[in-house]
Amino acid sequence: MDWRLAASTHIRVADASAFFAxxxxxxxxxVGGGGAVRVARLMGAARMSDLMLSGRVIDAxxxxxxxxxxxxxxxxxxxxxxxxxxxxxxxxxxxxxYAVIHxxxxxxxxxxGGRPVRREPDGLLHPDEPRGQGAAASxxxxxxxxxxxxxxxxxxVSTATRSAVATPAEAEAGExxxxxxxxxxPLTNSLGFHLxxxxxxxxxxxxxxxxxxxxxxxxxxxxxxxxxxxxxxxGILANAxxxxxxxxxxxxxxxxxxxxxxxxxxxxxxxxxxxxxxxAGQRLVEAKMPKFLQHERASAAALTPDERHTLFSLLRxxxxx
Length: 321
Fold this sequence. Notes:
Blueprint: H1 3-7, E1 13-15, E2 19-21, H2 35-43, H3 45-54, E3 57-59, H4 60-65, E4 71-73, H5 78-90, H6 94-107, E5 111-112, E6 115-116, H7 135-140, H8 149-161, H9 168-173, H10 191-209, H11 217-228, E7 232-233, H12 234-240, H13 245-257, E8 261-264, E9 274-277, H14 279-299, H15 305-318
Parallel strand pairs: 1-4
Antiparallel strand pairs: 2-3, 5-6, 7-9, 8-9
C-alpha cells in the first residue's frame, strides 16, 4: 500500500512482513500526495528527512516505535485486526467519534491570542447519546438519557467550555483552564467574533441533530442549493456558498458516488460541470428537511419572530443576498 494513503487514516495496522521507505530523494523527486504533511506529523520531520535522504528502509516494529503504525500483528492478520478495531469504534457514541477524529489532530496547534485553548469534546455530545465510557455513565452504571432540562444543561456546558482559556502558566503546569466569565475587550463589538460564536453554536446543534445521518452543514447546504437551483454549475455553487473549489469538488464527488447527485458537462463549456439531484438525492433532502427546520427553530429559540426577521434581513444585506 502507498504509505501516503496509509498516513491519511486514523489508525494503522501492519503485519510483521511490512516495510516502509521514502525513496523520493534517491529518485530526484519530492514526496507528494500529502505525504509531506501527513507522514511528517506521524514520525517527525527529522526521521522523515533521514528516510528521504539516506534511502533507509525500516521494518514494522521500528515503524511502530516511530508512531507510523499503532499495531503490528503476525503476517496475514492485519485485515482482521483492522476490522476488529473498526467494529469497536463503531460502537461508540457518534459525536464522540466525531470529536476524536476531527479535534485531536488539530487541538495541539490551536491558539487564541497566543494562549492555548482547550475545548471539552463532552460539551458537544447530545444528551440522548449513550456515553458508555463517559463519567456520567460510570457513576450511574448506565448511559444517561436526558430531555428537557438536560438540553438546556448541555447548551450551558457547551457555551461555558468555549470560555475555558488556560493561562501560559496553567498550560505549562498542565492545569485545566479556568471556566467562567472573561473579558473580551474590543471583541464585544466585533461583528466577526459574534458571527463566529453563533456559527459554532449552530454547528454544534446541527451535529447533535444529524449525528446518526452522517450529514454535515456544508454538505447539506450543497444538496439544498442544488435542489433549489437544478443545473447549477459547480464553480458558481462553490462561490455562492463560500466553499473552496477543491473542497467543493470532494463534496460533489462524494455525493456523486453515493448516487445523490448527477454531474453533466455542458456542451458550451467542457471545463464546467452542471449539478442536479438524483431521485435518491431528492428523497434524502425531503426526508431530512423537517429535522433541519426543527434544528433551525431551536437555534434561534432565544429570538422573537420580529428579532429573527430583523436578524435575517441584516445578514442577507451583509452577504449581498
